[in-house]
From TrEMBL:
It holds the Pfam family OB_NMD3. Residues 24-97 form the 60S ribosomal export protein NMD3 OB-fold domain. This is 60S ribosomal export protein NMD3 OB-fold domain-containing protein. InterPro entries: Nmd3 (IPR039768), OB_NMD3 (IPR048898). GO terms for cellular component: cytoplasm; nucleus. It comes from Euroglyphus maynei (Mayne's house dust mite). GO terms for molecular function: ribosomal large subunit binding. One of its GO terms (biological process) is ribosomal large subunit export from nucleus.
Amino acid sequence: MEMDLITAASNNNGGGGGGVNFRQSQKHELADAYLVKSSEIGSSAHIHTRTHLGHLLHPGDLILCFDLSTANLNEPNWELYEQSHQGKIPDVIIVKKYYGDRAQRKRRRRWRLRRFLDENASQISTTNSNRMDDDYNEFMEDLEEDDIMRRYINIYKDKRKIESEMAIDNDDGDDVPEISLQEMLDDLNIGD
């Protein structure tokens, strides 16, 4: 389900409550979020939830969620769980921030990864090939969004895209995550 974020208020109080010491996550921030379904923008039907993605969310963002209030769950013990945890189960669980059109993100990507060619690549059907391409693009999007994951992967500059972008500066001003040029490696060719 798609939802628009109305407000997100951070709950980062800087320490443990009640004298309990705990290590705070550097990657997550607890926040209260007020949401509205994309199909119901303009109505006053706000949904409140808490999320660990407070550091990523801003008012007006599009996010992907699980709507537990209208979900048809096929779990035989769900009703018992719901009764025993009354008032503690959220109506909506925020899964991830939606950054927009995948094709546009792919066009703006100024980097590439090196891949080993599979010897059996010619035997792969077009359906499996399309699925593998989709998985590869999802992996590249995950790399853009997660700087910790990027640390362990060599990312190379795509000189063709960098040169073409120098001529046309198409910065849309949105907050789509990008990999900086400082993080990219120059391509090394043995024949040079």
